[in-house]
Amino acid sequence: MTNNTKDDITEFLFIGKDYDELTNYDLVIMLGNNFYKEMALVIKRLYDDKKINDDTIIIISGKKGTLNKNITECEAEIIYKNILELGLDLDCRLEKNASNVKENLIYSKEIVGTFKDYKKVLIIGKAFIARRVLMTLKALGEDTDNIHFLGIEKDIRKDDWDKNDYAKKRILEELIRIGKYTIKGDLDL
Question: Residue 122 contacts by C-beta under 8 Å, 6 or more apart in sequence?
């Protein structure tokens, strides 16, 4: 893979904000994934840095994942328990039915209504899905001007995804997913 191709793919997928660019948010949506502790630690950091407060609504979205068959709780419940273990008592609302990004966003909207009613919305998820989240929001008719995305990097990182076979596979699958969902009409350019 040439550097230009790697850079183009990285620039296309990893479009979230850097932590330093974040502002104050009155709504946070956490997309379900298996980064349970990392997601909770991000909420703690946001709270400690006063980017969220006691009035911020936090939706934790996600049903039982498929990666670990031994886990019986849904992702939303596990992430919430990790937040509580950090000593935070915030306005968390659990959405336990979503199994993909589109459902995460649709079911979150059912909890709070349109995202336009909030001054600033922060969506937190795996870093490499930022483009798909933005395209899904547009397909759902949301104005994305007030919505930011914060990506969590763990096993797939912006700077070196092309050096790891697992990460490279996941990134290329994400590109295929974006194409497939766009053709299907679930994503909007």
Answer: 22, 25, 27, 28, 29, 46, 51, 52, 147, 148, 149, 150
